[in-house]
Amino acid sequence: MDANLDQKEDIKKNPVLKEQEEKIQKKLSQIENKIMVMSGKGGVGKSTVSINLAIGLSLENFYVGLLDVDLHGPNVPKMLGVERGELQRRPDGTVGPVYYSPNLKFMSVEPLLPEKDSAVMWRGPLKMSAIRQFIYDIEWGKLDYLVIDAPPGTGDEPMTVAQTIPDAFAVVVTTPQEVSLLDVRKSISFCNQVGMPILGIVENMSGMLCPHCGKTIDVFKRGGGMKLAEELGVPFLGRIPVDPRVVTTGDAGKPIIATYPNSHTAEAFEKLVRNVINATQALKEKLLEEAKEKQKKKKEKAK
């Protein structure tokens, strides 16, 4: 199954969509790496991983964009502490994203809502249109990384990202327990069907360090994500422990990687960041080699 077939046909037939697509591809050409963070089910800490990954990359002196495409539950602004941050309106009519720091900017539907408690009651076509607008109407500028926080599951939002950003990579977040791992398989299947390369699996809520004795308590089991990654033949990017401060810092809009940089959890996120950087480079080199080999075989066949 090619996720882009229907969309390509629609673009060919519609001049407005064709012009829009040209704008989208021009904007995307200024972004070096695109990573969609997804999960098979809700409640696994996907947004927490997305946000701390984006901040971690920005702390490594990369220019980073964070795109929140969870239209019905946009948590990114709250967790960054800039819920009603203003969009940067420019003289030429373009709109810039909201800045969290000099190296990190983000976009979410939340700043566009009349009130922060307003419900987004959109169906497929509206959601698809909104996500595309987040790319071609927003002046992202040059970025090293665009981290895309997708809602759980394999519905309209992840599908639209796959169709609109064909060179995006996927990071799949899970917790160690079986019910979450079952849903990860569906996410992996989704990526395979739409042709989205998988950067790796992250195991969140993987053990808790007891503040009294220092021992690790396996609240939700431990090691399931790594075992599944090995079974499916995809990289394992790291495990993030259970830490009550993740909740308190997220609610306060001060993510843990920046608030408690010397904590065990922040170190785990920093390791995840390094692994993502390395995995991204390795996967790009692998895909380039595969493309060269494919082209070589094509030339040999044509002789």
Automatic annotation (TrEMBL):
GO terms for molecular function: ATP binding; ATP hydrolysis activity; ATP-dependent FeS chaperone activity; iron-sulfur cluster binding; metal ion binding. ATP binds at residues 40-47. It comes from the Bacteria. Pfam families: ParA. GO terms for cellular component: cytosol. SUPFAM superfamilies: P-loop containing nucleoside triphosphate hydrolases. One of its GO terms (biological process) is iron-sulfur cluster assembly. Keywords: ATP-binding, Hydrolase, Iron, Iron-sulfur, Metal-binding, Nucleotide-binding. Gene3D superfamilies: P-loop containing nucleotide triphosphate hydrolases. InterPro entries: Mrp-like_CS (IPR000808), Mrp/NBP35_ATP-bd (IPR019591), P-loop_NTPase (IPR027417), YlxH/NBP35 (IPR033756). Belongs to the Mrp/NBP35 ATP-binding proteins family. Homodimer. Binds and transfers iron-sulfur (Fe-S) clusters to target apoproteins. Can hydrolyze ATP. This is Iron-sulfur cluster carrier protein. It comes from Dissulfuribacter thermophilus.
